[in-house]
């Protein structure tokens, strides 16, 4: 559709000139001799842009602007005048005008103003589309479930999203804890503020304090300039502390103080800074056991655990597997170039019968990999991992096939082995691939005697 422009001016020659020039450049143009007639046309027609003179009979340009603002016109209004001053331009902007051009003007000036206005409108539409997409993404649209327990969690999120209390999200790795944290943020009153996420187990202990609280120049060897921490970056929004159970003991004390006082002190600074931050934390560890064994501060646990949400593992919500398979198939098929690919009943049976120790994350990775391997329009068992085609385990006695704990151990061993092979034995890089803290990987290497 052509872009529609309305020209309002009491000079017939100028209206004729603008009409001819704009139509020549592909615009659809209507015209009016004064502000009142222009307002009637603007109210009846769906115009994209309005060029309006300031000095006119019946209703002048400023009067038209005020009436247009009261009527909430969507058109972008550009004012014109041969008697313009800075004060006049400012008054026009205050009353809702997008731009102001002085007469006489050249055709190129008008076309340039229009192109700038069109780009502005395109960016506004793009921002609106992205905002709507984000709302769909986190308004439970990305948390796919028909499970009764998950529906209860959706209700909990709705109740807590507008309340500024600390939320602790518990659950096994891969159950979607960050997704729930984002849903809390984007469905609440803080949606307009930043959402800042940090994995407490992925950052070395000597850097984590600076990352969270910031530093001033000279606070340590590499501190060449002042730097705000993540608490300050999250001001007015939400800070998501993932793997909070991996936080070193010395930082637990400082985190507790920030939560109690609502202020942070950068490393090397002498003053504190007030911060308005909603803290949502998550862990796959048993924090109560860590508290009992002295690995996690009890007072910090209580401060973080004002409101807790426990996510069930995928094996306890088996009715969601067909729904999730369909969701991930649609999500990844277009990007891979396999749109329209469907999962065969036999493949779905194998997917539904697997134990999923890696939970929803493992299922998504499995579907993405299977789509890449799928040659036709039907995703069959041959595209699934070999262990899954064998019933979800890598062999063993029948009673072992029913042991979720042993299946988890076998999967963890295999994933750790692959990560170490891929990184040439570099444990730090392997931990990053596995989405574990370096310390947690060392624990597992020792536990599985893989050192």
Automatic annotation (TrEMBL):
Pfam families tied to this protein: AAA_lid_14, HTH_8, Response_reg, Sigma54_activat
Modification sites for 4-aspartylphosphate: 53
Chain ranges of the Sigma-54 factor interaction domain: 143-372
SUPFAM superfamilies: CheY-like, Homeodomain-like, P-loop containing nucleoside triphosphate hydrolases
Entry superkingdom: Bacteria
Domain Response regulatory positions: 4-118
Record key words, sorted: ATP-binding, DNA-binding, Nucleotide-binding, Phosphoprotein, Transcription, Transcription regulation
Residues of the signal peptide: none
Name of the protein described by the UniProt record: Sigma-54-dependent Fis family transcriptional regulator
Organism: Geobacter benzoatilyticus
């Amino acid at each position: 559709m052509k872009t529609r422009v309305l020209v309002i001016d009491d000079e017939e020659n100028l209206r004729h000139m603008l009409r001819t020039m704009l139509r020549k450049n592909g615009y659809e143009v209507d015209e009016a001799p004064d502000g009142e007639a222009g307002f009637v046309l603007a109210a009846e027609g769906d115009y994209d842009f309005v060029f309006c003179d300031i000095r006119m009979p019946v209703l002048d340009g400023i009067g038209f602007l005020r009436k247009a603002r009261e009527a909430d016109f969507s058109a972008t209004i550009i004012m014109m005048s041969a008697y313009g001053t800075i004060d006049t331009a400012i008054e026009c902007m205050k009353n809702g005008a997008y731009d102001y051009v002085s007469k006489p003007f050249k055709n190129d000036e008008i076309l340039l103003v229009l192109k700038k206005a069109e780009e502005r409108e395109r960016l506004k539409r793009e921002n609106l589309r992205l905002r709507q997409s984000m709302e769909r993404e986190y308004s439970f649209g990305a948390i796919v479930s028909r499970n009764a327990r998950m529906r209860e969690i959706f209700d909990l999120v709705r109740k807590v999203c507008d309340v500024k209390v600390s939320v602790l999200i518990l659950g096994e790795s891969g159950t979607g804890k960050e997704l729930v944290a984002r849903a809390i943020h984007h469905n609440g009153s803080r949606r307009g503020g930043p959402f800042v996420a940090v994995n407490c187990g992925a950052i070395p202990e000597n850097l984590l304090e600076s990352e969270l609280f910031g530093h001033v120049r000279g606070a340590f060897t590499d501190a060449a300039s002042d730097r705000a921490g993540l608490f300050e970056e999250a001001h007015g929004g939400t800070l998501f502390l993932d793997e909070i159970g991996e936080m070193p003991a010395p930082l637990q004390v400082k985190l507790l103080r920030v939560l109690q006082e609502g202020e942070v002190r950068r490393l090397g600074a002498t003053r504190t800074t007030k911060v308005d931050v909603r803290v949502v934390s998550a862990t796959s560890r048993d924090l109560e056991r860590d508290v009992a064994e002295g690995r996690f501060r009890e007072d910090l646990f209580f401060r973080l655990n004002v409101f807790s949400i426990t996510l069930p593992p995928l094996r306890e919500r088996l009715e969601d597997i067909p729904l999730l398979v369909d969701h991930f198939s649609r999500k990844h098929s277009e990007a891979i170039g396999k749109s329209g690919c469907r999962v065969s009943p036999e493949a779905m049976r194998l997917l539904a019968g697997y134990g999923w120790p890696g939970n929803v994350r493992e299922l998504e990775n499995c579907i993405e990999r299977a789509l890449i391997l799928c040659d036709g329009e039907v995703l069959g068992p041959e595209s699934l991992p070999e262990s899954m085609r064998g019933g979800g385990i890598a062999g063993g006695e029948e009673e072992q096939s029913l042991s979720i704990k042993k299946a988890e151990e076998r999967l963890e061993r295999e994933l750790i082995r692959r990560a170490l092979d891929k990184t040439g034995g570099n444990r730090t890089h392997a931990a990053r691939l596995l989405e574990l803290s370096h310390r947690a990987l060392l624990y597992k290497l020792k536990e599985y005697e893989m050192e």
